[in-house]
Amino acid sequence: MSAPTQEGLSIAVPRAGFRRFLFFNRFAVEREQGFVQIKFGNVNKANVLVDSYALVISELELLGLRQSSMDYLGAQGSLQEAPPPWQPTGPMITEIANHFVMARHASIAETIFYSFSLWSAVEAAKRAASLDVKKPIQELDVIAEPMALLRSPLAAQQHLIRLLFPPVEASLPGQ
After folding, report:
1. DSSP notation for 8-77
2. Closest CA to 153 of 42, 25, 54
3. What is the pTM of this model?
4. Per the domain annotation, does 123 fall within a domain?
5. Cβ distance 97 to 147 under 8 Å?
6. In this predicted structure, what is the pLDDT of residue 141?
7. What residues make up the domain containing 40?
8. Separation of alpha carbons 1 and 71, rounded Å
9. What is the pLDDT of residue 18?
10. H or E element: which one contains 154?
11. How far apart are CA 141 and CA 128, in angstroms?
C-alpha cells in the first residue's frame, strides 16, 4: 500500500473540545454582502427565548459545503414540518465559522461548527502547491477549532439546510 499523497489542503476537524453546546428548536438565516448570519434559539412552550447562539459563514464557504449537505438531506427521505418562524429580538454575540458537519440518529439531529484562520488556510494551500504532489503527507495543514455542538429536532435541521442552500435557478443560454 502506498503512502497518501499531498493533493491539496487538508483540514482536521476535532471531535471534542467544543466551547458551546446548545439545543435549538428555532433559527433565523439572513444574507448580506456575501455572508450568511445564522441565529439559533431554544424557545420554550411559553414562547420565551431560553438560550441562543449566532454565527456567520461566508457564501463562498457554504458553496463548498452545498453538495455534501444536499446529499445528507436527500438521504433522509421526506421533509418534516418546519418549525415556526422566529426572529430574535435582542443582540447576540456572533462568531465566525468556516465549516460544519451534520449527523442524525432517529429524530435527533446534530450540527457541528468549526472555525479556522483564513490566513492559515491560504498559507497552507501555498505550501501544498509548492510541493511535489507525490510527496507523502507529513502533517495536517490546518486544524479547525471546534466551536459549537448543536442538537435539534431533525425537522429543524432539515429546514435549516433548505434555507442555507436555496434551489439553484437554471439560467437561460446567453445570460
Report:
1. S--EE--SS--SEEEE-SEEEEEEETTEEEEEEEEE-TTS-EEEEEEEEEEHHHHHHHHHHHHHHHHTT-
2. 25
3. 0.84
4. yes
5. yes
6. 74
7. 11-164
8. 30
9. 97
10. helix 154-164
11. 8
CA dist 109 and 67 (Å) reads: 19
pLDDT of residue 1: 34
What does the alpha-carbon distance between residue 43 and residue 91 come to, in Å, rounded to a whole number? 16
With 0-12 CB in 10 A as exposed, 13-18 as middle and 19+ as buried, what is 16? exposed
Rounded Cα–Cα distance for residues 95 and 76 (Å): 29
Which pLDDT does position 90 carry in this prediction? 86
Residue 2 within a domain: no
DSSP string, 84-107: PP----S---EEE-SEEEEEEETT
For residue 136, give the DSSP letter.
Answer: B
* Contact of 157 with 76, CB cutoff 8 Å: no
How far is it, in rounded angstroms, from Cα 103 to Cα 112?
9
- 170 within a domain of the structure (yes/no): no
- Cα 169 to its chain centre, rounded Å, is 22
Quote the number of domains for the chain.
1
Q: What is the pLDDT of residue 38?
A: 98
Q: Which residues of the chain have pLDDT under 50?
A: 1-6, 135-136
pLDDT at res. 81: 95
Residue 174 lies in a domain: no
Grid cell 441562543 in the structure block, residue: 52
